[in-house]
User: Which sequence fits this backbone?
């Protein structure tokens, strides 16, 4: 049963990942990424990481993907140009990818980590549940937790600064009129 | 399932993300591929935390999620700013800083 679940989730995760890079339209790439994230959440559940799985679904599939969908709808999914600055880039990239995969696999599987071929030790029912993770976050990892919250705050402020172009007080229509006349925006 | 299966899957997902960054031009899709790579790292962290039987790797995965959320917010803000300036959304055209 566990093996079936693993392979179904693994195929979902890999298929979603390949869909992200293969789809021409960015909107479909975002949808493929949502499939990938849900499959990854079920893999986390198989690894007895219930809280991470829930956070994955709520934070990624819920919040971040909505942001992506909005931006794709705003920007519009234009086709990519066929111009290649590096000749043979599309052939070279998968070869480099295969080399990277072999390298990563050899680095991990040929290491002396004997526990890699086990399922890990037996853990109690509370392993990875919200209570246990919360206790770790608020006791042992309090400083990284606060640093993470400051980082989130900084990112939110940065996004507001980046998205706000009317600091000089003029309206967007005036801005586009200026640009069409070839005058640089007053920033 | 043994932990090594999860690690190999994580390596595959990371590779897929890396190949995507190399072959795609749109900054939006490149951000999505960055998400793929971060999530592959998360999967490896959680798998190793299960292997050791210690929950600290899961806390690390949560911090990685926070960093990914910040990266998305700033990256999408940049993309919206680029779009509003009517610049091309193509990483090969946006290369003023390359020297």
Assistant:
């Amino acid at each position: 049963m566990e093996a079936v679940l693993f392979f179904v989730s693994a195929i979902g995760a890999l298929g979603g990942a390949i869909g992200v890079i293969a789809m021409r339209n960015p909107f479909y790439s975002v949808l493929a990424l949502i499939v990938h994230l849900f499959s990854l959440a079920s893999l986390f559940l198989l690894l007895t990481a219930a809280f991470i799985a829930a956070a994955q679904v709520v934070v990624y599939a819920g919040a971040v993907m909505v942001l992506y969908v909005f931006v794709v709808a705003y920007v519009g999914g234009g086709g990519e140009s066929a111009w290649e600055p590096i000749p043979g880039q599309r052939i070279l990239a998968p070869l480099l990818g295969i080399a990277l995969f072999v390298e990563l696999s050899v680095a991990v599987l040929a290491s002396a980590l004997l526990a890699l071929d086990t399922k890990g030790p037996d853990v109690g029912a509370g392993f990875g549940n919200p209570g246990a993770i919360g206790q770790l976050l608020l006791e042992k990892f309090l400083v990284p937790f606060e640093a993470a919250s400051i980082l989130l705050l900084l990112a939110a402020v940065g996004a507001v600064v980046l998205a706000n172009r009317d600091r000089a007080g003029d309206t967007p229509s005036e801005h586009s009129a200026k640009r069409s006349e070839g005058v640089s925006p007053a920033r | 399932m043994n932990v090594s299966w999860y690690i190999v899957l994580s390596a595959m997902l990371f590779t897929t993300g890396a190949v995507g960054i190399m072959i795609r031009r749109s900054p939006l899709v490149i951000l999505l591929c960055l998400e793929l790579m971060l999530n592959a790292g998360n999967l490896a962290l959680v798998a190793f935390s299960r292997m050791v039987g210690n929950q600290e790797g899961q806390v690390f995965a949560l911090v990685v999620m926070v960093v990914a959320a910040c990266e998305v917010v700033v990256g999408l803000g940049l993309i919206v700013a680029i779009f509003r300036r009517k610049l091309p959304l193509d990483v090969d055209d946006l290369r003023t800083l390359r020297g």
Summary: The mean pLDDT of chain B is 88. Residues 56-84 of chain B form the longest helix (29 residues). The two ends of chain B are 50 Å apart (CA to CA).
